[in-house]
Amino acid sequence: MNAISTSAPESCVHIGGYTLVATDEIIFCQADCNYTQVHLLKKKRITVATTLGILEGRLSPKGFVRVSRSELINRSYIESYDGYYITLVNGTTLPISRRRRKEVQRCLGTYPDPYREQEVQYA
After folding, report:
1. Please, are residues 15 and 72 in contact by the beta-carbon 8 Å criterion?
2. Higher pLDDT residue, 35 or 10?
3. Residue 50 contacts residue 16 (beta carbons within 8 Å)
4. What global pTM score does this model have?
5. Spatial contact of 52 and 72, defined as CB atoms under 8 Å apart
């Protein structure tokens, strides 16, 4: 008797309903009340009945960062970043909220972590 595995592959995430999506296919997610629009490669967009907060919990360990109240981005698809705006590979420019700016900078490695040991150089 063959056993059928019902577990999802490591690179896929459950985003709502019966929908599994590979994390490397997701460019960013955008909140829309109690729904979320998931923007994928090849200009596809899926609307799911899952809040952005729930998706953030599922996607944060996989390289996603919340840049504002209504956007969650995949760090792999950042084209440019100037401290206030992030431009993604599909041409979308998203503002970074003041409240999340330091967290985004830490995630992207552009803000010094006060808890990390600093190298001390003596003259």
Report:
1. no
2. 35
3. yes
4. 0.78
5. yes
